[in-house]
Amino acid sequence: MSPILELQGVKKAFGAVVVADDQSWSLQPGEALGVLGPNGAGKTSMFNLVTGTLSTDAGSIRLDGQDITGWSAAKRCRAGIARSFQVPQPFAHMTVFENAYVAATQGAGLSGRAAEAHCLDVLDRTGLVAKSNVQAGGLTLLERKRLELSRALCAKPRVILLDEIAGGLTEHECQSLIQTIRDVHATGVSIVWIEHVVHALLAVVSRLMVIDFGRKIAEGEPHAIMQSREVKEIYLGIEADA
Amino acid sequence: MDWLNAILQGTLLGGLYALFAAGLSLIFGVMRLVNIAHGDLIVLSAYVALSFGVSLGLNPLVALLLVVPSMALIGYALQRLILNRTMGEDLLPPLLVTFGLSVILQNVLLMGYSADPQNLQAGTIETASVNLGPVAVGVMPVLVFITAVVVIAALQWMFYRTALGRAFRATSDRQDVAQLMGLNRAHVFGLAMALSLAVTALAGVFLGIRTAFDPAAGGARLIFGFEAVIIGGLGNLWGTLAGGVILGVAQTLGAKIDPGYQILAGHIVFLIILALRPRGLFPRIDG
To answer: Does B80 fall in a domain?
Structure first.
């Protein structure tokens, strides 16, 4: 099967700071890929490169076989890439429904009743439908994270990029969010998920990738990766030769 | 009774000022662009109506059917071809470009139409009046005021009830995130400027029917528009109408005291409001 998303030799540096160093990886249709790595490893920058917020210095990005490296962020979204932000960025002066509606009309190209129905369906799935008419600026953290997910889903993505969506939530909140993400995955949407809350990640993904200093340093079956030397070095501070 | 009359005339004049201001408010709200050429675009609209009137023999009120779409097209092209290239984090480059545009427009109009004052002849409706109890009001000022109310109600509806309006508000809130939602910023900005200049077209034609204009008449209209926006509070369209009315009433009351005080009185009231409520009377946009 050909990958839905594929990066080949992607490089990006800000002066001496390298955020993506010859990165190559791919995502299969319907797959859920987890991304681990210490703070500042270049995980969020990787998402910015995929969504088009940052432009690459070298390398190529393909969506379903099509080279999208030179595309604008808006065009990539309409082609099927959506993301959620680590720090939620709602349109604070608009209602929850309107936030979703912007993504449905602009990203998914829906209009009229179809757009409204799609928004309500997504908000129902993400558990926000009761808050439809609340101003997004007044939501709690969990609700804001759910709004991030809703907005991304309203754009009818083929690939969804989740950036630490479980961070900062209580255990109970985290469990309900995991269930929502599993439901999304079950509908066939491919997922790339950056997360520090490892148990949340392991509950959904079938493959893990570890990134440090902008480089991919390990990739494979989740439990094997968690046991690997690279992960222990990064998360537990164990020296390589110890 | 004279005072009541002055207040009424000022209120109706406020409708014209609100039309000057609505387009300005709209593009500032959507893209944080301060359009220094706005006054000159109002005057340009009046000249476009004049040309349609001369070449096709149209009454300026009928010519509006052509002037409004013409100005909207000019607005879309202006935004896509020139202003979008300057839009970014910094507010200054687009401001300077619109300043340059203002100078160019004035001089092009001077070359094309000379410095002689012109007037749009709308026929007998210009002098028609109706008696409202003890005072008489002109049909034209009433028509302008009603148009202003309808335009602002329509813009308000568009902003809060349509997909385009939500795209405008999303862009206004977080431009970068809006693009990640698939929103084509260049096109949305183009539509905002098109809408702004469509309203400007109405303002320009009504201005030309009310008073004589020349290529240098834009500056004062820009100031009146700004004052109405700021008195009403940024981002609040009904506030802009209130701002226009306050400015209009201040001017006619000033003129009542002494005809030389008309413009001055408007500026003084503006300064007092700015000193007491720097964010305007009914602000909606923060920061």
So the answer is: yes
Q: Which two tokens stand for residue B246?
A: 């306050």
Q: Which residues contact B218 (CB under 8 A, 6 or more apart)?
A: B37, B38, B39, B40, B41, B42, B43, B102, B105, B106
Residue numbers in A near B169 (CB within 8 A): 91, 93-94, 98
Long-range interactions of B152-161: CB distance < 8 A, separation 24+: B152/B18, B152/B22, B152/B237, B152/B238, B152/B240, B152/B241, B155/B22, B155/B26, B155/B195, B155/B199, B155/B237, B156/B237, B156/B238, B158/B195, B159/B237
Is residue B281 situated within a structural domain? no
- For chain A, give the longest Cα–Cα distance: 63
Q: What is the ipTM of this complex?
A: 0.84
For residue B47, what is the domain's CATH number?
1.10.3470
Domains of chain A: 1-80+157-242 (3.40.50.300), 89-155 (no CATH)
Q: Does B264 touch chain A (CB under 8 A)?
A: no
Q: Is residue B86 helix, strand or coil?
A: helix
Rounded to whole angstroms, how far apart are CA atoms A217 and A43? Answer: 12
B287 part of contact set with chain A, CB < 8 Å: no
Chain A segment 154-193 residues within 8 A of B by beta carbon are: 155
Q: Is B119 a member of any domain?
A: no
* pLDDT tens profile B159-208: 999 999 999 999 988 988 999 999 999 999 999 999 999 999 999 999 99
**Token pair for residue B195?**
């809408």
- The closest CB to that of A102, out of B166, B184, B185, belongs to B166
- The model's pLDDT over B136-157, given as tens digits with 9 standing for 90+, comes to 899 999 999 999 999 999 999 9
Cα dihedral sign for B257, B260, B266, B272? negative
* Structural domain includes residue B283: no
Query: How many domains, in total, are found in chain B?
Result: 1
Range of the domain at B90: 2-113+134-276
Of B169, B181, B185, the CB nearest to A93: B169
